[in-house]
Amino acid sequence: MKKYLAELIGTFALVLFGCGAAVVDGKTIPAAILPDAPFGIGILGIALAFGLAVVVMAYAIGPISGCHINPAITIAMLVARKISGKDALGYIVAQFIGAVIGAAALYAFQTGSPNFSGIGEYGLGSNGWGPGYLGGYSTTSAFLTEVVLTFLFLFVIFATTSRWGNSTMAGLAIGLTLVLIHLVAIPITGTSVNPARSFGPAIFAGGKALGQLWLFIVAPIIGGIIAALVWNGIFDKEAA
Fold first, then answer.
1. Would you list the DSSP string of 121-188?
2. Which residue from 237, 226, 235, 195 is spatially nearest to 14, judged by alpha carbons?
């Protein structure tokens, strides 16, 4: 249970820190939540918030659970035979619960704002695409972005945690990779590469955010599975 609780807390922190930075301080704040926001850390600040959240959680809970805090990572590890089916299920359930709690905490914080008038469409840092969402990118662009960037994310994770990697620096490398991913993907999808991170805010935002949630579950899982197959089939044949 310690492993599952660690995953819950880690995912809670990721959603709270990452989505919180976007909602409270970012320039992507929906007008319905915080019009004329006096702050503005921008895309770089939001990217750093997500990446640094992964770094600190990697060193905090990595020794306990491996710090997946992402169902796409857990499923990829299951495909690569680095985690049991029982643990994978426990991790995924814990991750989704943690994401919902993180979004709930962020919602509670926002209700105290003098300008709060409801979550609004795509609120709480929800992911999305198409007209009305950030860059207005197409469904195809959003899907490809999430698949390709999740693949690269998992490839870095497999490499840095392998027998060739530097275990003491793995958490930093993984977190910095997530920063780079956000710098590219925020205007396209708001950046998911993590079904749980998308699920928590979408549950509260509803509407289009909830209707488009399927892409942020399917695409990251596909990207993660491809990375697991490539890693085991080409780079780590002994594990295949």
1. TTTTT----STTSTT---HHHHHHHHHHHHHHHHHHHHHHTSTTS-TTTHHHHHHHHHHHHHHHHHHH
2. 195
CA distance 189 to 191: 5
198 in Cβ contact with 100 (< 8 Å): no
d(CA 35, CA 32): 6
- Give residue 40's Cα distance to chain centre: 21
Phi, psi of 165 (to 5 degrees): -85, 170
Rg of the chain on CA atoms, in Å: 17
User: Is this prediction's pTM over 0.70?
Assistant: yes
Round to whole Å and give the CA distance between 132 and 122. Answer: 9
- Position of tokens 């780590």? 236
Model confidence over 198-214: pLDDT tens digits? 999 999 999 999 999 99
Contact 201, 216 (CB under 8 A): no
Which pair of tokens denotes residue 132? Answer: 């009305």
